[in-house]
Amino acid sequence: MDNKIETSFQKRRWIFFWSQKKAKIGSSIFIFMLFFSMTASFWSNSKPYILITKQDSHTQVFFPLFKKYSPSDFGLGDIFYMNYKDFVKNNPQSFALFPPNPWDPLEQDDAVLAAPSSSHFLGTDNLGRDILARLLHGTQKSLLFALSLWIISYAMGIFIGAVQGFFIGAFDFILERFKELAAIIPMLTAIILMTSLTQNQSFSLILFITLVFAWMGIASQVRATVLSLRQREFCQASLALGASPLRIIWTHILPNSLTAVITLSPFAIEAGISLLASLDYLGFGLPPPTPSLGELMDQGRDHIQEAPWVLSFPVLTILLLLVSISLIGQALRNAFDPKLN
Asked: Are the C-beta atoms of residues 145 and 182 closer than 8 Å to each other?
């Protein structure tokens, strides 16, 4: 009966969440940007979806975007890199269907710092690379980093916080002292120092260093909730009936800790996006020529007068991302925070 009441209550919370205008707007923008960034290679690529060509009076069909081919497959034995645009241009009988934005994020054009046009919808950067292609793939990197950071740090934080709060003792004491020590060290400074010392700016290293700090906030939230719940009657009754501590944590305590986890999640994703953009902007993020929002902003700062679009589009992208996630977070807080309800 209690489970049915709890399920009904949670259902009403989600209904109230989706009834809010800010939830609808924020979710629509975020899902739109998430979809197009995660499928960036499908929308922006220098490889065609399909290529039809005649070789030795035989018609051949290729799918370069979905399958890797070598130049020898097209009868070209004297080159190492297949340029499909040049191939189609030099073979009038060939037909190719390219993505809507036929540019790779690393591909360079002769038009340097070109204004938005039909050739480059959002213009080019200081190396002639297409800004739309780099925005799509840069947003993909930012969201992958932020979502990975959120999932892993929250999984670690929930587990460690639950164990801390339920068992207390030496484990809790040591971890609290570690948190106090880590709070003294600014996370951004630690990441910059480690990437400088190791001469490694890989995605995995930056994520690993960030995870050392990122789990602590949610762990403290879960620990506080567990400390207040572990002495409640339903926990004591389950313990008296022979339930194991892990079973009590899983079935009784963690479901009652979800409010903090759900309401804080959007802001953790926001923090991940902002952190990677800041590192890239400062030059301590992903290594060049990896496309990133922060790297485009850094370029835009240097060319703000002659090419303002280089800065405008990444700033607008980050702004839309952060505003959409913030709207989702506010709507979740309105729906799940018992003080507001």
From this structure: no
193 vs 215: CA distance, rounded Å = 20
Question: Which has the closest alpha carbon to 292: 117, 186, 148, 145?
Answer: 145
Lowest-confidence segment of 29-38, 94-103, 162-171, 312-321 by average pLDDT: 162-171
Of the candidates 280, 140, 162, the residue with the CA atom closest to the CA atom of residue 227: 162
pLDDT digits (tens, 9 = 90+) for 210-261: 999 999 989 988 888 888 877 776 666 766 777 777 777 777 777 777 777 8
Each residue's pLDDT tens digit, 168-179 = 778 888 888 888
173 within 8 A of 162, measured Cβ to Cβ? no
Phi, psi dihedral angles at 68 (to 5 degrees): -85, 130
Let me know if domain 2-40+133-336 sits in CATH 1.10.3720.10.
Answer: yes
For the chain, the distance separating the N- and C-terminal CA atoms, rounded to the nearest angstrom, is 23
Q: Where are the domains of the chain?
A: 2-40+133-336, 46-98
What phi and psi values does residue 290 have, to the nearest 5 degrees?
Answer: -55, 125
Instruction: Name the 3-class secondary structure at 56.
Output: coil
